[in-house]
Write a structure and sequence with these properties.
Number of strands: 18
Distance between the termini: 24 Å
CATH class of the largest domain: Alpha Beta
Structural class: alpha+beta
Strand order of the largest sheet: 8-7-6-9-13
Oligomer: single chain
Number of domains: 3
Length: 401
């Protein structure tokens, strides 16, 4: 059975599942908790009684019920804790402090060189500085990276765009910070955030597709992130889409990949070649040109959208999600992508899938880091054990081991 938060927690995860639900949904009645987590009313009553006694949960006001006495709402106590989220890029690290309900309390940005010999040590220093400034109970640290991660629990990273090969991000940070650390692909972290605060509340199987510097995809099946055998599932930017002629190189080392054509660098290269923008023009320059009605600029985006539509249709046929969420820096110009995307995407789908919804979400830069923090905040629902010992340590810090 699957519910809005994902699979029903194992028996040992029920207390933390209740805490996580109250954190992400706010004050909730015992009956609603039972329905959301697929638990019996008796189990919810016993578990919440224990959580109240331990000072983690408190009873709030009563609300009218459909017959019988009014239902009492339950809520988290004020100091339930916060998570730190860090998004690593090729030139900076974005860090946010996030409350259990997803509210970003603070954000900062630090210059960063991932190619330096001491890059991971330096990352630990940045995070230690952020942790030292906290005056709340820290539940753990989530780190999102643009690459493959063997497992959230271990955190060994292969990220060609950062120059990392088998980089021991998780072990190094845990030793430096003395706190639970979970690491995953950055698009998977956005999928985790959707599970807690967005589409994942109403759908158990969905895709989160990002457009921007690269093209990524987080895959959620039956409420859990599908990571593949080696943590590399969802790398749709490296689907080969062309095989003839002189092919553009991709950051992965291959040629003719989807990302090489419609990632930001590929779009800019095409736009410069067609003189839609000047030799120093950027993706922002191209968006401005399209906004003013420049036909050449609009055509570059429309062709990128058409290529994305065809590739994504193939992913739909493979995974069969309920809904697709589009986000990332590139959605700022989505109106221009869409002219090519929508007809190409729908035309390429099988008849039974032609109506799959595509939701475009507004984008802010701190969403990457907020997604990373969600790796920590999903620990109460980690019935599949993706976070291993690190998720258990987060639950201990919540007071719900």
């Amino acid at each position: 059975m699957v519910n809005a938060q994902g699979p029903i927690p194992r028996g040992d995860l029920v207390p933390s599942g209740v805490v996580g639900l109250l954190g992400t949904q706010g004050p909730t009645s015992r009956a609603e908790i039972a329905r959301a987590l697929g638990l019996s009313p008796a189990t919810v009553t016993q578990v919440t009684k224990d959580l109240i006694a331990r000072g983690l949960v408190e009873e709030l006001e009563s609300v009218p019920s459909k017959g019988g006495r009014p239902a009492r709402l339950l809520g988290l106590v004020a100091d339930a804790g916060v998570a730190l989220g860090a998004k690593v890029t090729a030139d900076h690290v974005a860090v946010v402090t996030v409350e259990l309900d997803g509210t970003v309390r603070s954000s900062s940005e630090h210059e960063y060189d991932p190619t330096a010999d001491d890059a991971i040590t330096r990352l630990g220093q940045v995070l230690a500085q952020e942790i030292a400034a906290l005056d709340d109970r820290l539940l753990g640290v989530g780190v999102g990276v643009p690459g493959s991660v063997d497992a959230q629990a271990s955190g060994i990273v292969d990220a060609p765009t950062l120059g990392w090969r088998a980089a021991p991000v998780g072990p190094t940070l845990r030793a430096a910070l003395d706190t639970p650390v979970l690491v995953d692909n950055d698009v998977n972290t956005l999928a985790a955030a959707e599970r807690l605060y967005g589409i994942g509340r109403d759908h158990s199987s969905y895709l989160v597709v990002t457009i921007g510097r690269g093209i990524g995809c987080g895959i959620v099946v039956d409420g859990g992130i599908y990571r593949g055998a080696n943590g590399g599932a969802g790398e749709i930017g490296h689907i080969p889409v062309w095989s003839d002629g002189e092919l553009p190189p991709c950051t992965c080392g291959s040629t003719g990949c989807l990302e090489a054509y419609i990632g930001a660098a590929g779009i800019v290269r095409t736009a410069r070649a067609r003189k839609a923008i000047g030799p120093r023009g950027t993706i922002s320059t191209l968006v401005r040109a399209a906004t003013t009605g420049d036909t050449a600029a609009g055509q570059v985006f429309a062709e990128a959208g058409a290529m994305l539509g065809r590739a994504l249709a193939g992913v739909i046929h493979t995974v069969d999600p309920e809904v697709v969420v589009l986000m990332g820096e590139g959605v700022d110009g989505w109106e221009f992508w869409q002219t090519g995307f929508e007809p190409s995407f729908r035309r390429s789908l099988l008849p039974a899938r032609k109506d799959v919804p595509v939701v475009v979400e507004p984008w802010t830069e701190d969403q990457w880091a907020r997604g990373a923090a969600s790796l920590v905040l999903t620990s109460p629902f980690d019935s599949a054990g993706n976070g291993g010992e690190q998720s258990r340590l987060v639950r201990v810090r919540m007071g719900t081991p």
